[in-house]
Design a protein that fits this description.
The chain is about 10% helix and about 30% strand. The chain is built from two helices and nine strands, in the order H-H-E-E-E-E-E-E-E-E-E. The protein is α+β, with helices and mostly antiparallel strands. Strand 6 and strand 7 form a beta hairpin.
């Protein structure tokens, strides 16, 4: 994994759309069932929209019915970091890109085998590279 990417707020604002900035840099959330990748079935790799690091493979994507793309495993054990999130009166685990610290979404322990995890990720925080 490359060294941490460090950009100024103004650099992120120049690079990202308003919605991408809101979600990835301000820990926002896109509306459920609105994202480009919710129903995507193509084979490929999902990357961080901010730094293009690989995060998830299509092989681990599943339909959880939650309204956001869901994955049961990250592409690599070091792809994302986990952080306690008590915002909005909830007890959740936030996931961020390990390389640039972009907010991606949350992980829950109600996913399918083999991991039992459900990474619930904002489409706007992702780019997709088809195989």
């Amino acid at each position: 994994m490359p060294d941490k990417l460090d950009k100024s707020d103004s650099q992120w604002r120049e690079q990202l759309t308003e919605e991408q900035y809101f979600v990835t840099r301000q820990a926002g959330t896109e509306p459920p069932f609105s994202g480009a990748y919710v129903d995507k079935q193509d084979d490929g790799t999902y990357r961080c929209v901010c730094c293009h690091q690989p995060l998830f493979n299509s092989e681990t994507k599943f339909d959880s019915g939650c309204g956001w793309p869901s994955f049961y495993a990250q592409v690599d054990v070091d792809a994302v970091t986990h952080h306690a999130d008590y915002s909005h009166g909830m007890d959740r685990t936030e996931v961020r890109c390990q390389h640039c610290d972009a907010h991606l979404g949350h992980v829950f322990d109600d996913g399918p085998a083999p991991t039992g995890l459900r990474y619930c990720i904002n489409s706007v925080a992702l780019d997709f590279d088809a195989d």
